[in-house]
Write a structure and sequence with these properties.
CATH class: Alpha Beta
InterPro entries: FAD-linked_oxidoreductase-like, PRODH_bac_arc, Proline_DH_dom, Proline_oxidase
CATH topology: TIM Barrel
Structural class: alpha/beta
Number of strands: 8
Strand order of the largest sheet: 1-2-3-4-5-6-7-8
Radius of gyration: 18 Å
Number of domains: 1
Distance between the termini: 22 Å
GO molecular function, one term: nucleotide binding
EC number: 1.5.5.2
Strand content: 15-25%
Cofactor: FAD
Shape: globular
Helix content: 40-55%
Pathway: Amino-acid degradation; L-proline degradation into L-glutamate; L-glutamate from L-proline: step 1/2
Order of helices and strands: HHEHEHEHEHEHEHEHEHH
Number of helices: 11
C-alpha cells in the first residue's frame, strides 16, 4: 500500500485506481496524463511488458470515455536496449492511440538520449499527426535549435524547465538563466505556433506569460502540472477556462519515483514533509 506522503503524488498502484483518479480530476475540469511508473530497463522483456501495458491502458481510457492520455519514458520502452527497439515500441503505442482516438506524450530523459528521442518523434508524428507530443527541456543549451527543428512537426510540444542534473557545458545550471531560457522558448512557441503548445510548469510567472502570449497571438495551449503540486491552482485555472492537464504516475514502482522527485529539488523535500504533517 502506498503511504500517505507518496499517495499525494502517485495515483495508485493499479489501472482501476489510476482511472478513479482521472475520474475525480475530470470532475474538477482537469484532464490527466497517466504514466506507468518504470524506467531504465535493460531487459527487452521488461520494455515489452510496459509497452503492452500502455496498449491496454489506451484501450481502457477509450472504453471509459474519460479525459486522459498517456505519457511514456524512452528508457521504459526500450531506449536502454536499443534505439530501434525504443522507436518500434513508441510507434506501436502511438498507432494504437491513433486507432482509438487517444494521445501519447513522450517524456524527455537525460541529454544523452535527446537526439534519438527527437528523431523518433519526428518520424512518428509524420505518420500519425497530432496523435503524439514531445517534451523538451529549456535548461539544455541546444533547445532553441531543437525548437527551430520541431516547430512545424505535426505534434504537440511540452516545454519544461528540466529536472536532470546535466553538466554546465550542455545545460544552464543557474536558476535565473534557466528561467530566462524558458521565457525565450515559450515566446518562440507562441510566435511560431497556433496550436499544440503545452506549458509544463508550476511557476505562476510562466503560466501568466503563456496566457498573455496566447491572447496576443490567438493560440491554443494547455498547462501541465504534476499530481500533488499546486492542485488548488490546477482547479482554479480550469475554472477560468484554461485547458489544464495533470501528470499522474501510477504503478507499483512508486518508491523510486517518489525518491527521485524529492532528490531532484530541495523544495520537494519540504513539500513532502509538509504533506506528512498535514500542513
Amino acid at each position: 500500500m502506498i503511504p500517505p506522503v507518496a499517495s499525494r503524488f502517485v495515483a495508485g498502484e493499479s489501472v482501476p485506481a489510476a482511472l478513479d483518479h482521472v475520474r475525480a480530476a475530470n470532475e474538477d475540469g482537469v484532464a490527466v496524463i497517466l504514466n506507468l511508473l518504470g524506467e531504465h530497463y535493460d531487459d527487452p522483456a521488461d520494455a515489452r511488458a510496459d509497452t503492452d501495458a500502455y496498449l491496454g491502458l489506451l484501450d481502457d481510457i477509450a472504453d471509459s470515455g474519460l479525459d486522459a492520455c498517456v505519457s511514456v519514458k524512452p528508457s521504459q520502452i526500450g531506449m536502454d536496449v536499443s534505439t530501434d527497439l525504443f522507436e518500434e515500441h513508441y510507434r506501436e503505442i502511438v498507432a494504437r492511440a491513433h486507432e482509438v482516438d487517444a494521445f501519447v506524450w513522450c517524456d524527455m530523459e537525460d541529454a544523452d538520449t535527446t537526439d534519438a528521442t527527437l528523431d523518433a518523434f519526428e518520424s512518428i508524428a509524420a505518420d500519425y499527426p497530432w496523435s503524439v507530443g514531445q517534451c523538451v527541456q529549456s535548461n539544455l543549451r541546444r533547445t532553441a535549435d531543437d525548437l527551430d527543428r520541431l516547430i512545424d512537426v505535426p505534434g504537440k510540444l511540452r516545454l519544461v524547465k528540466g529536472a536532470y542534473d546535466e553538466p554546465s557545458s550542455i545545460a544552464y545550471t543557474d536558476k535565473a538563466r534557466v528561467d530566462e531560457a524558458y521565457r525565450d522558448d515559450l515566446t518562440t512557441l507562441f510566435e511560431r505556433r497556433d496550436r499544440g503548445i503545452a506549458v509544463g510548469s508550476h511557476d505562476p510567472e510562466m503560466i501568466s506569460l503563456a496566457d498573455r502570449l496566447a491572447r496576443d497571438r490567438g493560440a491554443d495551449y494547455e498547462v501541465q502540472m504534476l499530481m500533488g503540486v499546486r492542485e488548488d491552482a490546477q482547479r482554479d485555472l480550469a475554472a477560468q477556462g484554461v485547458d489544464v492537464h495533470r501528470y499522474a504516475p501510477y504503478g507499483d514502482k512508486w518508491l523510486s519515483y517518489f525518491y527521485r522527485r524529492v532528490r531532484e529539488r530541495k523544495e520537494n523535500l519540504t513539500f513532502a514533509a509538509r504533506a506528512v504533517l498535514g500542513q
